[in-house]
Amino acid sequence: MLDGSVITQCKPCHRHQEFLGFLNHLDRNVPSGLEIHLIADHYATHKHPAVKQWLAAHRRFHLHFTPTSASWLNLVERWFGRITSQAIRRGSFQSVAQLEHAIVRFLADWNDHAQPFVWTKSARHIQRSIHHAKLIYET
């Protein structure tokens, strides 16, 4: 979200079924008048025919893929790093449920004090980096 708050779900698998469930979760939790732009990696789950069909039926959703060679563009990597360093790294969890509980607690606190991630490079610099990565990996 633009204010830095997050809408999340913990899922045991990363199949297209779970991704569709997450898309439905977003659809229910984001006001209907807003466009939703999702930045995703090139994982096959995000390109499954059922996902493409769902996206075609939900026109306010726009999926953008990061270049394979440019994971640094994916702000979710910074987000996972934050969760790891502040909620998981020094924890001792007896079960998956305990781990999920620690993550949910962190997320609730995050949303209470949300701050957006901000790009430190200009859009032009980022676009040049994407173009450069495409040149390297398309040869």
**Total helix count?**
5
For the sheet with most strands, the description reads: 2 strands, parallel
Detail the poorly predicted runs.
none
Number of domains: 1
> Which structural class matches the secondary elements?
mainly alpha
Shape: globular
Distance, first to last CA: 36 Å
Helix content: 40-55%
Number of E-state strands:
2
Radius of gyration, in angstroms, nearest whole number:
17 Å
Main sheet strand line-up: 1-2
Mean pLDDT: 84
Short description:
With 139 residues, the protein is mostly helical.
What does this entry look like structurally?
With 139 residues, this protein is mainly alpha-helical. It has one domain (16-137). The chain is built from five helices and two strands. Strands 1-2 form a two-stranded parallel sheet. Helix 2 (49-57) links the parallel strand 1 and strand 2 (61-65). Helix 3 packs across helix 4 (96-112). The longest helix is centred in the C-terminal third of the chain and has 17 residues, at 96-112. The radius of gyration is 17 Å and the shape is globular.
What's the helix and strand layout?
Layout: H1 16-29, E1 36-40, H2 49-57, E2 61-65, H3 75-88, H4 96-112, H5 123-137
Parallel strand pairs: 1-2
Helix pairs in contact: 3-4
